[in-house]
Amino acid sequence: MSNSKPIFAYYDMRGLGYPIKLELAYLGIDYVDKRYPITQAGLDQYRSDKANLGLDFPNVPYWKHGDINLTETRAILKYIAREEGGGKLMPTDRVGLANAEMLEGVLWDVWWFLINRCYRDTDDVIEELGESPAKFEMLDKFLRNKEWLLGDKISYVDFMLYEILYQYNVYDSEYLGPYGALLKLKANFEGLPAIKKFMASPEYMAAPCYHPLYMRYKAVGLTC
Ligand SMILES: N[C@@H](CCC(=O)N[C@@H](CS)C(=O)NCC(=O)O)C(=O)O
C-alpha cells in the first residue's frame, strides 16, 4: 500500500458520503478530504475531472489509495470497514456478516425513499416514502435490547443507519418519534468519543445533506 494519504472525494455535503466520513473519523484515519463545491462551478469541476481520475466507474463518492481506485458508496464503506483500523467495523462471523448484508439492503432502500422524495418530488416517490415507517418499525424491533445492530460490537451498518436517521430527522423532526431503540442508537452514536470530537471539529458539516442543484423538493436543512 502506498505511503501517500488516501483521498476521499465527494460533493461538499453529507449525501451518500457521510457514513464513510464518520467511519474515517471513528477510526482516526488521516486522508485528503476533497470536496467539490455544491455550485455550478463545482459540478463543472467534477465533470471535467471525471474522466481523468483513473476510476473504472467514475462517480462520487470515490476513494483512492495506492492500487485502490474505488467508487460505489457501499463498496467504499465496506472496504474501509475491512481494511482500516484492523478491520474492526466488519463482522467476521457467519451470522453477523449475513445479517449485516441483509441490513445493508434494507437501509439502502429506506435511504433512497427519502433521497428520491427530494430528488424527484413526484407523486409516486412521495407515496413510496410512506413505506419507511414500516421499515423503521422492523429495524427498531431488530435493534431492541442490543447496543448496535449486530449486538455489542459497532459495525459499518450502524454508520449507515446513523446517517439515515440523521437525514430523516432533518427532513421531519417528528419522523423517528415512535422508534425508541433507533433514537437510542442515534444518541449513543453521537456520544462515541471519536464522533463527539469530529462533530465539534471544523471539518464537521451538519448540513446540507443533498445537492441544492439536483433536488426538486427543497427541505430546509436537508437541501439548503
Ligand atoms: N451507485 C453510486 C451512486 C452515486 C451517485 O449517485 N452519486 C451522485 C451524487 S450522490 C452523483 O452526482 N454522481 C456523479 C456522477 O454520476 O458522475 C453509489 O452508490 O455511490
Automatic annotation (TrEMBL):
Q: Which GO terms describe its molecular function?
A: glutathione transferase activity
Report whether Membrane shows up as a keyword of the record.
no
State its Enzyme Commission number(s): 2.5.1.18
Q: Where is the GST C-terminal domain?
A: 93-209
In what residue span(s) does the GST N-terminal domain sit?
4-88
- According to the lineage, what is the superkingdom? Eukaryota
Keyword Electron transport: yes or no? no
What broad class of enzyme is this? transferase
Q: Which GO terms describe its biological process?
A: glutathione metabolic process
Q: Which reaction does it catalyse?
A: RX + glutathione = an S-substituted glutathione + a halide anion + H(+)
Q: Which key words are in the record?
A: Transferase
What family is reported?
Answer: Belongs to the GST superfamily. Mu family.
Q: Provide the protein name.
A: glutathione transferase
What organism is listed for this UniProt entry? Folsomia candida (Springtail)
